[in-house]
Amino acid sequence: MNNSNIDFLNRKAESRLIPQKSNDAYKKEYDKFMKWVEEQKVTDISERVMLAYLQKMSEQYKASTMWAIHSKLQCLLRQSQLVQLSRLWLRINKGVDIKLFAKVHAFMKAISKNDVAKKAYVFNEEDLRKFFIDAPDITYLFLKVVAICGIFGSCRRCELCDLRLHDIKEEGSVLIITIRPSKTVKARRFTVADSEAISYVRLTEFSYDMIRGNVPIKWLVLIHLDHVPRKLHVILNWMILQNTRDMLFDLAEMKGGIIHQETPCTSATIMANSGMTTDQIQRQVGWKSSAVATGYVEESISNKKNVSNIIGSAINGSSTSLSSELTILI
């Protein structure tokens, strides 16, 4: 095998190191870094150079964004390449692994200290219960179905967009819904079942029947999903009008994240409050790591109340029956 063929196969293999879905974002961050390198007339990527760049970025971005920048640059700079910058040639010999830069790692940890991440908005159980029961179907049926699929299946917007009528199967009184695989997430299934107070299956089936009769395509009711982020604000407005809670926040700040983040976050919060384990939450949502699920369990108010009850009962000398109420889920 000659060198040119090896180089070709090597480049092909390296191109697979970057998630295909995020390729543009990685390249954009890399190009931004290389432009700065050119402006500074840098001829070698060193720990000193990386620290200077990250310090500059930290003056503009929060810690969570900084970790994303660090991750993208770490992935791309690791690859062997010869980069031409106008009149300069920058040699990145055998790649540069910034993971080995101890000062860079210490800097990233330092900027993360005391940083409070902005959490996605979460609908609580009482909000959702009143919305499903009290909001009139003639106006809110579509949004009820979006909320049911999004929360029962912990679905992201792209997953809801790919949902089709033949992905829903009815088995008795239960709906089995299949989420299609994507480039980064494998296929998974979830079920929708009725509760004593709310007929989730009836709401979903009624909406599907309307679509089957009026829309000559196989896409689900979520064909207008591009407008869902704005439409979900209607749910919030309805809750405010019903005085279900004191919502003093700017709806405009939520933007499109309300369907991309809020439904999985709401789903995970409800599952954690109901006592589900970290593993169960991780499997349901489809997260690859248990770290995020662990965070929801640790922050669960219901779990914290159980801890408080156990401690209080132990002090009162009646802790025998309450110990079963608490599940330490880490």
UniProtKB/TrEMBL annotation:
**Domain of life, per the record?**
Eukaryota
Q: Which GO terms describe its molecular function?
A: DNA binding
From the UniProt annotation, give the residues forming the signal peptide.
none
Q: Which InterPro entries match?
A: DNA_brk_join_enz, Integrase-like_cat_sf
One GO term (biological process):
DNA integration
* Keywords, ordered alphabetically: DNA recombination
Q: Could you identify this protein by its name? A: Tyr recombinase domain-containing protein
